[in-house]
Design goal:
This protein has 281 residues and is α/β, with parallel strands linked by helices. The chain has two domains: 167 residues, 3-Layer(aba) Sandwich (Rossmann fold), CATH 3.40.50; 93 residues, ProC C-terminal domain-like fold. Helix content is 50%, strand content 14%. Helix 7 packs across helix 12. The longest helix has 21 residues. The protein is elongated. 32% of the residues are buried. The N terminus is likely disordered. The structure holds NADP nicotinamide-adenine-dinucleotide phosphate.
């Protein structure tokens, strides 16, 4: 058990500088911080955190992180990770006084680097779009870094997100598409596997077997694909004999315009991301 209460914010107003300050300590920020500590990129005492709720502060405290009130936290890091819900940033930003040369890194969907830089009056903002697989250090993070961003800030952001998976540098104009594919895509795949599980039960398999088989299909495909040697369409072709069982199933999916439906779903997610961004202008 921690020796002091998290609510006392032990280092809050001591004027100390930390390598990383974190505003918002939800699922994602907590995964990133745990990833950095477990890979040895950062030590717990190099990180200061602010979260709105006592429950989140307690979690941060249990990890050995320093804690601060919101305003102190915002000005206490060489790098500042913004990981609050996007809808609250507009309300919080005017209360923050972030030193202009802080390496601000945002994972908030919808807010552009320019909008954030303007609100916080800072020189550079790096945007990152990870996904929930950060919790198991298997995220893919699209990282958008402007050309004029200092090399040290760039390297820090690359290492921060490499602690929770793979990093894909990308122009900011692609981030809404990334949100639709690797961010929301996790939900599309979950839906597919859930549907496969229901189909298995419908075909008479016991519930536990249905669950295991559908999940193992996902794992098998992921493992084959992750070798980089297997092309998915070649893999699909290899299990689709003319007039065979897989062909019968794929014909039903084709008739239901499965591929087009996925494209439409991804487009809807991208449009929604753009819409959320426009609301911030
Ligand atoms: N999860 C993902 O896979 C993912 C992927 C890409 C980007 N993101 C982005 O990452 C950010 C955090 O997401 P998350 O999944 O970690 O969400 P989360 O678990 O719900 O955490 C959100 C954080 O925002 C705080 N918050 C909520 N209401 C607030 C308010 N009124 N004022 C200030 N802070 C408030 C929460 O505080 P309390 O809980 O303490 O109240 C919590 O610390 C979001 O901007 C999201 O767009 C998430």
């Amino acid at each position: 058990m921690p020796s002091s209460s998290p609510h006392e914010h032990p280092s809050s107003n001591d004027g100390a500088q930390y390598t990383l300050a974190v505003l918002g300590f939800g699922k994602l920020a907590s995964a990133i911080v745990r990833g950095c500590i477990s890979t040895g990129f950062l030590k717990a005492n190099e990180i200061v955190v602010w979260a709105q709720s006592d429950a989140r502060m307690s979690q941060a405290h249990a990890l050995g992180l320093k804690m601060a009130d919101m305003k102190t936290c915002a000005q206490s890091g060489t790098a500042l990770l913004l990981s609050i819900k996007p809808q609250f940033f507009g309300e919080i930003a005017p209360q923050l006084s972030v030193p202009a040369n802080t390496n601000v890194i945002s994972v908030m969907a919808g807010w552009t680097s320019e909008q954030i830089a303007t609100r916080l009056k800072v020189k550079h903002v790096i945007r990152a779009m990870p996904n929930v697989a950060a919790e198991v250090q298997a995220a893919v993070t699209a990282l958008s870094i402007s050309k004029d961003c200092p090399a040290t800030a760039r390297e820090f952001a690359m290492k921060l997100f490499a602690s929770v998976g793979r990093v894909e540098p990308l122009h900011e104009s692609h981030l809404d598409a990334v949100t639709a594919i690797s961010g929301s895509g996790i939900a599309y795949l979950c839906l597919f596997i859930e549907a496969l599980e229901r189909a298995a039960i419908q075909l008479g398999l016991p519930n536990d077997v249905a669950k295991k088989l559908s999940l193992e299909v996902l794992q098998g495909v992921a493992k084959s694909a992750s070798t980089g040697k297997v092309d998915l369409s070649a893999l699909r072709a290899s299990v689709t004999s003319p007039n065979g069982t897989t062909a019968a199933a794929l014909a039903v999916l084709d008739a239901g315009k499965f591929s087009q439906l996925i494209t439409r779903a991804a487009q809807a997610a991208k449009d929604r991301a753009a819409q959320l961004g426009q609301a911030n202008t």
